TrEMBL record:
GO biological process: protein N-linked glycosylation
Pathway: Protein modification; protein glycosylation
Low complexity composition-biased segments: 38-51
Source species taxonomy: Eukaryota, Metazoa, Chordata, Craniata, Vertebrata
Cofactor remark: The cofactor is mostly bound to the substrate.
Region (Disordered): 34-53
Compartment list: Cytoplasm, Perinuclear region; Golgi apparatus membrane
Name this polypeptide is given: Alpha-1,3-mannosyl-glycoprotein 2-beta-N-acetylglucosaminyltransferase
Organism per entry: Seriola lalandi dorsalis
Amino acid sequence: MLRKRGSLILCGTFLFITWNAILVLLLWGRPPPGQPGEPGQEQGEEAQNPPNDVVGDVLRMADAFEAELELQKEILIQIQSHQSLWEPSNRNKPKVQVPHEPVIPILVIACNRVTVRRCLDKLLQHRPSAELYPIIVSQDCGHAETAEVIRSYGNQVTHLKQPDLSDIAVRPEHKKFQGYYKISRHYHWALNQVLKTLSHSSVVIVEDDLEVAPDFFEYFRASLSLLKSDPSLWCVSAWNDNGRDGYVDPGKANLLYRTDFFPGLGWMLLREMWEELEPKWPASFWDDWMRQPEQRRNRACIRPEISRTLTFGRQGVSLGQFYDKYLRYIKLNTEFVPFTKLDLSYLKEETYRETFQKEVYSAPVVTYEDVKQGKLKGPGPFRLQYSSKDSFKVMAKNLGIMDDLKSGVPRTGYRGVVSFISRGRRIYLAPPPGWTQYDPTWS
């Protein structure tokens, strides 16, 4: 690994030296201003016909190198933390065994919202280590004001620019969805930069309209080893779709779940998973594509009881879909939970499934009217049973949780069960006992 990184920095140094050599040659070859008597030049011609725009040529060449130099900067930042390993003064010192801490880059997907500042400010405020959590901002759209905001952070972040800003050819009925096509193209490019070009082994993706909780980094650090070791998992998300205030237990900030629904909105992906998804990455609507059975393949994500991200972006390609009714009321966790010191083995597939199903199906069955009217007696939990798509949607909508399904999977659902708080009591909206699989026609 050190040899590979050393080669990369040597390559960057070579490019830097070559660039300066080209600049020097261009300037040497330029005729001295105002020098009379040169062949083919009359007195005063220089005033009328200015010399070749060398500065313009230099700027154009600089644009060509810009994207590559940004990537080199990211590599330099990573190598800096390992510099002591190859410094001559340290080569003969006894080697001290230091626990390996994997680097988890944070990829911020940005476009034309100057409010990315709020996102970056919170990330930098809560980030415990610049070396372990490099922040990479990938910008699409070419929006100058947003680019200026990102540049204002200097070397605290790495600013990448998606090079292809062209419109995408779509069929006529999809012209209004052009934005979704561009977003999918941007994700594909940005994830390739982080996981392939920069060779990171994992990444946490954050949109530019997300604010993170104080234990955001702690949460992903603790769940990384779980994601790597359990093949039945394919992502970790910071988001609870039903995480509005009053629908979560404020005393259970440390509670985590498995979910069959891909939540997004602050999520971690491994490079191995990207290698599976990248060859078939969709042209548009990438998040709904992730929720299809062909991609999910019966794998689950980890999600929290209380969200570790909060969206503040009402404006976007979705035109505020769900924002006013649900998203703006999501509760953001404020209590720091030391997840890296907790035992998360209960989230392993076999252990979790057995324990979760036992708790759900041993809970007393109650009616929708009892839940809605607050007539439940006892601390709970309680089970509210649905038997069809329509019965699920009616009860979910009237109880205030999200009622849409993607490929038959309800938001936050695990084996068909949706867990939430109603009037201070835990409710499991669940299918009948003996549930085996989702019905993709429930969409």
